Amino acid sequence: MRPEILYPLFADVVTLGGVGEKARKLLCNLLGGSRIIDLLWHLPTGIIDRAYMPKLNEAVPGRICTLRVQVVEHMAPRNKRQPYRVIVADETGQAELIFFKVYADSIQKNLPVGAWRIISGKLESFNGNKQMAHPDFILKPEQFAEDMKKETVYPLTAGITNRMLNKFMPQALAKVPGLPEWLNGEFLRQQDWPGFKDALKAVHHPQQEIDLQPWTPARCRLAYDELLANQLALGIVRQKVKKQSGRTLCGDGRLRQKVLQTLPFQLTDAQQKVLREIYADQASPFRMLRLLQGDVGSGKTIVALLAMLNAVECGAQAAMMAPTEILAKQHLETIAPLLEPLGLRAELLTGRIKGKNREKILTSLENGEISIVVGTHALFQENVVFHDLALAVVDEQHRFGVHQRLGLSEKGNRADVLVMTATPIPRTLVLTAYGDMEYSKIDRVPEGRQPTDTRVAPLEKTADVIRGLKRKLADGARAYWVCPLVEESEKLDLAAAEERFAGLQKVFGDKVGLIHGKMKEKDKDAVMERFKKGELSLLVATTVIEVGVNVPEATIMIVEHAERFGLAQLHQLRGRIKRGCAPSVCLLLYASPLSETGKERLNIMKHSEDGFEIAEKDLELRGGGEILGTRQSGFTMFRLADMSVHKNLLHIANQDAKMILETDPELKSARGQALRVLLYLFEKDDSVKTYKA
Fold this sequence. Notes:
Elements: H1 21-31, H2 36-40, E1 46-49, E2 64-75, E3 84-90, E4 93-99, H3 104-110, E5 116-122, E6 124-126, E7 129-133, E8 137-139, E9 150-153, H4 162-174, H5 185-191, H6 196-204, H7 217-243, H8 254-262, H9 269-283, E10 289-294, H10 300-313, E11 317-321, H11 325-339, E12 346-349, H12 355-366, E13 372-375, E14 389-395, H13 402-409, E15 416-421, H14 427-433, E16 438-442, E17 452-458, H15 462-474, E18 478-482, H16 490-508, E19 512-515, H17 521-533, E20 538-541, E21 554-559, H18 567-574, E22 584-590, H19 596-607, H20 611-622, H21 624-627, H22 647-663, H23 670-681, H24 685-689
Parallel strand pairs: 4-7, 10-15, 10-16, 11-13, 11-14, 12-13, 14-15, 17-22, 18-20, 18-21, 19-20, 21-22
Antiparallel strand pairs: 1-9, 2-3, 2-5, 3-4, 5-8, 6-7
């Protein structure tokens, strides 16, 4: 249960004066919620200084002025296309107020002739006359208050004005109760930070531009609160997982040894180091929850297979879950030939497998005939029952939250969980998105892999690119052509891909194929199969090929509108042409003109193949959500913390959370009780409920 002290903050915005049902809906669109706390987390981005209050004869055009004037005359337009004008004056001169598309009776009511008014807005000069179009506000002199000289500017949406937010925000701030201090007193003094309530007031009442910066004491205080809640919540889940008794898996090595003998390569030192960490987890009496991170082509699948065989050697089963059917099939194609000589059965289970075939697989899983199953979300379904699941491997699935990662393992007998990703994640994001897990990293790619020749060119060179591509494909090369990413619109993504496909078909005929996310799974598979076999030389695609597609013969990648993609995403795409040992070329086409940041980003891709270096830069330039894929990613999109500025605070919060859980694991001390309030404030309710489980 949320503490009663927080009830006012989680009340609906309709409890504020001036917020009706229409405004509530609009605020919900803007804030992502309709509670007072959602409004308070909506931080300002600017400030308008209305302190310049000159007489009319001294007022400088081009500036925001606050003027005390008397209404002299109304000049209604002859036709609707002309503006409505109001002449105003003070003892030194005159000015015109200009209104377009407005109701005359409303203007006359607000500006009766002879009345004095305080008006504020941008003053302009036209034909020697001073004018103000649509003043930002028109008030009676007694309505004007000193604090109106500084107006806070917020991000807006259609139907919500800055004026409205400046009316609602003081009411919301007045509802903030005096909360117990959850930060260590000495630390608070060292940082010279205000209390939580004062920090919130300060960020919503900036007095100058510098007060809007994320490094101000008030912003740092709030950012730290959010980061501490995040780290504490993850620490609690991790603590809970660590306490869960697992099972000891120590196979005799016979199956693993046979597989290693049949491999055409030797494991790298990095792979062997990671396997030692995984085997140690499997051998411990507690459940494993480990993140395995490795760049594209670093050999995670074979590591996962050996971990699964360790479970199979103990007479148990293992499952591997992938985000797409293409990737699940690919994993099965990699591991099935290695398992057949061992007399082990591996099967594929996806949503598309139906009828008798499905029943057969489910029965074999339940009676233990299948040692390893590879599948998609279908593995989560209730009717999927294992004989004895001991290890669940989850591949490339950022959309899973902390608790969902454990979902597949719940189907087993205290099953271990290994989460794999090829997306290079900076240490910062490992802490915030995967802080509940142990962490292993394969930091070397296998011997023989050649660096990709990455080039950058403007879209105007597309005709030249096609001519060059024609020569390469004639020599037997295979290539991907990735179409532009149109943010927030899969329809536009698809239209761009279909248009490019039609154009390339005219040049390459039936040697070009198209693959996109809207296609049926069987159609996607058919196109991929033809590309793998070499029946197709060129594959036009959306980012559906970003993860895991394995065609070692494909050595050319062209990305259209590369400036629209995140660096980590470009790195993932480039990884598709690094599956074999042949030299590869990646061409990034951009639309001119390219911004300075855009140039910097593409330059990083040109000069670096280090996924982790690229990811750190991506975090700096674009933010965490983009690195892990999209806004739907499992990465926490912080409301108050900015990872490009508050990274150091995250590391302090991480250490603080560890210390808290070591000294007060049940959060029973005075500070522990205050921290429970913090967890509820930032809606980490699940973590607090852990204590009641």
